[in-house]
Design brief:
This protein has 251 residues and is α/β, with parallel strands linked by helices. It has one domain: TIM Barrel (Alpha-Beta Barrel). Helix content is 45%, strand content 22%. The protein has 11 helices and 9 strands. The protein has helices at residues 2-16, 58-63, 67-87, 100-103, 108-118, 139-151, 168-173, 183-186, 191-207, 219-227, 244-250, and strands spanning 20-29, 35-46, 50-52, 93-99, 126-131, 155-161, 178-181, 210-213, 232-233. The protein has an 8-stranded mixed β-barrel with strand order 1-2-4-5-6-7-8-9, surrounded by 4 helices. β2 (35-46) and β3 (50-52) form a beta hairpin. The model has no long low-confidence stretch (mean pLDDT 95). The structure holds ligand C2E and magnesium ion (2 copies). Residues 39, 97, 129, 159 line the site of one magnesium ion (MG).
């Protein structure tokens, strides 16, 4: 992969040059159909290669020690965006993806809270989405850090639920307050998948977790998660990830 080493070499400078931006995808309340949150998704606006998606550079950032800087940048962009939306009269929430490696840093929480405060954002406007793309090494230390965030009102979400990357154990260990159901579950129309989906939502309701259904692409999929009483829906049917200016117009 020729691009691999090129991107690896350029990534450390990309954040400083302002080439890493956030796209925002709307999350809808399943009852009112209103936009209640935006998920921030990283994009690399490369001067020569164009728009690069996170699957092509987040693993590099993790591997080459740039993930903390990149992650802090994404949190700052997201808090700034949420502050803008609040000023525009739309006090919606913002959700940021955080890698397990970021949570391994003891200073992570302090930096998040400093950022939230510096934008004057109520902490309950922020959601941290945890994906276990790399294994969480010290689960109890990470859980304690997340406890701290949760205690001030930050939502702790377990992303990609229903894939190999997240499990019931992880939800319980991290004392999550939200569960994001992966598209592999919400899009699958087989009886097995539907049974599993219903069981997952039942579990979440039982534990008092907020449930977001991801990857909603069709009206029947939306109807299914609505009948199961998921709280929120997100997906191409409802809105694709777009740049900040385009999201402003959406609101
Ligand atoms: P994710 O957090 O599960 O985000 C959802 C992904 O599914 C996004 O891909 C989004 O564009 C895509 N998606 C949304 N709705 C639909 C739909 O209806 N159908 C289909 N087929 N796809 C849909 P994206 O933006 O390429 O992000 C991929 C993954 O990269 C994210 O998955 C997340 O795990 C990771 N990621 C993105 N931004 C960041 C970041 O700032 N930091 C970290 N650590 N990871 C990030
Ligand atoms: Mg996510
Ligand atoms: Mg996901």
């Amino acid at each position: 992969m020729e691009n691999y080493s090129r991107l690896a070499a350029e990534l450390p400078h990309a954040v400083a040059r302002g080439e890493i931006v956030a796209y925002y995808q709307p999350q809808f309340d399943i009852i009112t159909n209103e936009i209640v949150a935006a998920e921030a998704l990283a994009r690399w606006v490369h001067p020569e290669l164009g728009l690069i998606g996170p699957v092509d550079f987040i693993p590099l950032a993790e591997e080459f020690g740039v993930i903390d800087e990149l992650g802090d940048h994404m949190i700052a962009l997201s808090c700034e965006a949420a502050r803008d939306w609040q000023r525009q009269g739309h006090p919606i929430e913002v959700a940021v993806n955080v890698s397990a490696l970021q949570l391994g840093d003891p200073e992570f929480v302090t930096r998040v809270l400093t950022t939230v405060e510096s934008y004057g954002l109520p902490p309950n406007r922020l959601t941290i989405e945890v994906t276990e793309s790399t294994e969480i090494i010290d689960v109890s230390a990470v859980a304690e850090r997340l406890d701290w965030l949760r205690s001030v009102g930050v939502t702790i979400s377990v992303d990609d639920f229903g894939t190999g990357h997240s499990s019931v154990a992880q939800v319980l260990d991290l004392r999550a307050t939200e569960l994001k159901i992966d598209q592999s579950l919400t899009q699958d129309d087989t009886v097995t998948a539907r049974t599993l989906l219903a069981a997952v939502v039942g579990f979440a309701n039982d534990k008092g977790l907020r449930v977001v259904a991801e990857g909603i692409e069709t009206a029947p999929q939306l109807e299914r998660v609505r009948q199961l009483r998921c709280d929120r829906a997100q997906g191409y049917l409802l809105g694709r990830p777009v740049a900040k200016a385009a999201f402003d117009l959406l609101l």
